[in-house]
Amino acid sequence: MLAPYRLVSSAAGPLVRLYLERRRRAGKEDRARMGERFGDSEETRPEGPLIWLHAASVGESAAALPLIERLLSQNGALHILVTTGTVTSAKLLKDRLPQRAFHQFVPVDLPYAVRRFLDHWRPDLALWMESEFWPNLLRMTRRRGVPMVLVNARISPRSYTGWRRFPVTIERLLSSFDLCLGQNQGEAERLTALGAVEVAAPGNLKFAVPPLPADQKELAAFKESTAGRPLWLAASTHPGEEEMAAEAHREMRADFPGLLTIIVPRHITRGAAITRLLRGGGMNVAQRSAGEALMAETDIYMADTMGELGLFYRIAPVVFLGGSLVPHGGQNPIEPGQLDCAIVTGPHIFNFLEIVADMRAAGALLRIDGVSGLADAVGGLMREPERAEEMAAALRRIAVSGGAVLDHIIEVLSPFTGPLMEPGGKDKKSGGGNGVTVAAETSRARP
Q1: Distance (Å, whole) CA 284 – CA 297
Q2: What separation in angstroms does the CA of 39 have from each of 42, 49, 84, 107, 137?
Q3: 145 near 433, Cβ under 8 Å?
Q4: Distances (CA, A) of 145 to 138, 328, 437, 441, 443
Q5: Three-class SS of the chain
Q6: Of residues 36, 60, 130, 241, which has the active-site annotation?
Q7: What is the Cα–Cα distance from 239 to 322, expressed in whole angstroms?
Q8: Which of 165, 169, 267, 307 shows the smallest number of beta carbons within 10 Å?
């Protein structure tokens, strides 16, 4: 499939531009930085060694931050280029990337855009987070002789089943990587079955991420405004789950006078639409992004602001974790687990199967079969705060148990990063990627 894909993608430029323009109008692309999506950049490549780390979106970006910081600490001349494909991840990285790390939008998977990107940045090493496989980007990087490592790899059961129908294609894509690091042993086994040759399972990098931050003044103000009120949080919700949370609120409010339900949508741009929808259903909703005050009569607080999930995890003793009552695959349970929350999740948790299984086995998480059990599960934990505290303590033990993961990952990466950490190592002003030129690209292709 790869040869036809490259032919089609070579001719798809006009259609891709139309698609990106539609995304821009919807607020999903940054107008001022559209050139980056076609391999153009106003930034200059820094001198010295350069690692390129690709992380598809917010979750992968957050997981990569401890790795970025550790690598930069090993060599004061090293720089790290981080690419993502979403506006939300760009905003997160703008606030959280350390010195000598910088963000660019990943180029679309058109051969000429990829070529411009590689010509400009000339990376010495490419680290690819999780499982976003863009054929042109992978194969053209590999052909330039740039070492590549797949980090924190995750192949969901659904993706695994899909790739099994195209064994030659996925084997060729995985052959782009010198090493594939699975999040756990199950992921490593799936990678091996799909054709990856060098595979290891040093652990899930998400365990190395510090707890989500929170503004202490905002936290104190919110605690004061909600003092004495029973409350719970529906976090990282997806379409359909906000109505489910509102229905659970209706079922519980007779038992919990003054009940407050906080909703943090996974995509904050949906906040206004969700607010209108819930108000149409009779809910008294205060929308945070609109500056609306939380009042005594507020039923639902729509927390649709960027980067404040850590604030609301610190407020709520009980959390429903979204993306799990709809077939999205769930959201990261480690984040609330680090912040003393008792977690309720739905049945669709295939993105975090092993982590959720460990949490359930430890009695640290409740899994419900559908929306009918949401009010019972949340209400039950609110009636039994001691039980919720026990679950939160068990969750915290699991969430911090992976603290050594970063050390393990740094160790297995050392054959690739080591040459960049030596004084003067890979110090190229005009060529990363082992100095391979565009003309030599094809000659470096792997079979």
Answers
A1: 7
A2: 10, 20, 13, 5, 11
A3: yes
A4: 11, 36, 10, 8, 10
A5: CHHHHHHHHHCCHHHHHHHHHHHHHCCCCCHHHHHHHHCCCCCCCCCCCEEEEECCCHHHHHHHHHHHHHHHHCCCCCEEEEEECCHHHHHHHHHHCCCCEEEEECCCCCHHHHHHHHHHHCCCEEEEECCCCCHHHHHHHHHCCCCEEEEEECCCHHHHHHHCCCHHHHHHHHCCCCEEEECCHHHHHHHHHCCCCCEECCCCHHHHCCCCCCCHHHHHHHHHHCCCCCEEEEEEECCCHHHHHHHHHHHHCCCCCCCEEEEEECCHHHHHHHHHHHHHCCCCEEEHHHCCCCCCCCCEEECCCCCCHHHHHHHCCEEEECCCCCCCCCCCCHHHHCCCCEEEECCCCHHHHHHHHHHHHCCCEEECCCHHHHHHHHHHHHHCHHHHHHHHHHHHHHHHCCCCHHHHHHHHHHHHHHHHHCCCCCCCCCCCHHHCCHHHCHHHCCC
A6: 60
A7: 10
A8: 165
- The number of CA neighbours under 13 Å toward the Cβ of 176 is 27
At 434 the pLDDT is: 45
Q: At what angle do helices 374-383 and 241-252 cross, to 10 degrees?
A: 50
**Residue 138 to residue 114: CA distance in whole angstroms:** 9
Q: What is the residue whose two structure tokens read 């429903």?
A: 320
CA distances from 6 to 2, 112, 436 (A): 6, 11, 21
Total residue count of the chain as it appears in this document: 447
Q: Is 60 a catalytic residue?
A: yes
CA distance 9 to 357: 40
